[in-house]
Amino acid sequence: MLTIASVMALSAMQSALVDERLAGNLVAMARAQMAAEEGAAERLVVGPERSDAPDCEVVEQALEEGDGPLVESSQVIIGELPLVGYYSGSCWWQGGVGQWVLGWVGNGDRLVARHLILLLPEPEPAMASSTTTPSSSSPSMVWLDGGAGH
């Protein structure tokens, strides 16, 4: 009876530890998304920085594989406990300059979670013959990649 009770107690404790880790990961992912959204809002105000930027698809793929584009980007630290911030930069998208923002949460030197947002210029639609004003070229937000760090 004592053995069964001990095994059940250990099982419950293991389950609680797993639940605690999962909850921590969800909090980190939410903070990374909020950091990316804060950076995206700032980038909408500031606007694109460089016209010699790489293609947005290249930036997205490079960020999935490593930290390549982060070398030439700007970094903003939002919080220190835990370490939260975002990187941002410009990229080309279908003939216009878009922007990317990577929100992140770190624990020491380790990346815990990240979230990538692309701010892409909307393509100009063909104007109807009765229309004389072009459409707005305001960017649209595309949420990509969210999850635990690599």
Molecular structure report:
It comes from Halomonas huangheensis. Residues 129-140 have a biased composition (Low complexity). The protein is 37% helix and 35% strand. It has 150 residues and is of the alpha+beta class. It has one domain (25-123, 136-148).
Q: What value does the average pLDDT take? A: 74
Helix/strand/pairing category:
alpha+beta
What is the N-to-C order of secondary-structure elements (H for helix, E for strand)? HHEEEEE
> Which regions are unreliable across 5 or more consecutive residues at pLDDT < 50?
128-139
Write down the domain tally: 1
Could you give the distance between the termini? 44 Å
Rg over alpha carbons: 21 Å
Oligomer: single chain
Query: Largest sheet, described in full?
Result: 5 strands, antiparallel
Strand content: 25-35%
Share of helix, binned: 25-40%
Strand order of the largest sheet: 1-2-3-4-5
